[in-house]
Amino acid sequence: MDKEEKYIFDRVGKENPFKVPDSYFDTLQSKIMAGIDSLESAEEKPEAGGVDMPEAKVVEMPKTKSKFYRYLVAASLALTLAAGASFWFHSVKQQQDAETLAEGTVVTDSFIDAAADYAMLDDIDMYACIADNE
What we know:
Elements lengths: L2 H10 L11 H18 L25 H36 L6 H11 L3 H11 L1
């Protein structure tokens, strides 16, 4: 036996402190059956376990979305559509420019000068490149 159990037994003893009235279990079954019979014979059976419930009251919730939020959503959608359309048109234009160059567009001297300046090539480098390709 543990210390706690010994302490409890010393204080309370081994006697059961809980008691049931005499002939309680003899009449319990008849009381339960009488309660069931009375529920079955009732004309209206309440739905909430034998308790009459008051009729539910409908309460409207206040509107939380104001016109400002609606306009904000509309503006953000318009901005998203505009940005998407701009991106799509820009990519289509780049594709068309690449196809135009691939078809053999005439290259002018100003284009070659700009490309040479961009590539940082001088005359000696160009001559060496041309000589290598011949």
